[in-house]
């Protein structure tokens, strides 16, 4: 898995022009099958339909060159700092 693909994902489908993406950094977790996985976490402030702060986990797909984005948390309002802290605590 090339790191450059994970560090620079294309957020075209997730971000409107007025939205903000904040990279949190690498993250790791144990999946439901008990296997260790890793990816990168991002906190996104969406403004298009009211203020919402989302936490996304971006991982490499099993198909080369593809990434998957998982919505981990959705919080109403502008909660960027709180969501960054939550993400760092959850994905140590």
Summarize the structure.
This protein is an alpha+beta fold and 92 residues long.
Describe this structure in words.
There is one protein chain. The chain has 92 residues and is of the alpha+beta class. It has one domain (3-7, 19-90). The protein is built from 2 helices and 4 strands. The chain has helices at residues 3-7, 80-90; strands at residues 20-30, 36-46, 52-60, 67-76. A 4-stranded antiparallel β-sheet has the order 1-2-3-4. β2 and β3 form a beta hairpin. The protein starts with a helix and ends with a helix. Residues 1-6 have low confidence and may be disordered.
Question: How do the helices and strands line up, and which of them pair or pack?
Answer:
Blueprint: H1 3-7, E1 20-30, E2 36-46, E3 52-60, E4 67-76, H2 80-90
Antiparallel strand pairs: 1-2, 2-3, 3-4
- The spatial strand order of the largest sheet comes to 1-2-3-4
Whole-angstrom Rg: 13 Å
Low-confidence stretches: 1-6
Please state the average pLDDT score. 87
Number of helices: 2
Which labels suit this protein?
17% helix; alpha+beta; 92 residues
């Amino acid at each position: 898995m090339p790191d450059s693909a994970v560090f620079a994902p294309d957020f075209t489908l997730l971000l409107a022009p007025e939205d903000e993406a904040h990279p949190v950094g690498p993250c790791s977790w144990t999946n439901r099958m008990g296997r260790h996985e890793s990816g990168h976490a991002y906190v996104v402030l969406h403004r298009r339909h009211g203020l919402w702060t989302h936490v996304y986990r971006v991982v490499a797909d099993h198909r080369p060159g593809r990434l998957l984005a998982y919505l981990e948390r959705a919080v109403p309002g502008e909660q960027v700092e709180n969501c960054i802290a939550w993400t760092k605590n959850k994905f140590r």
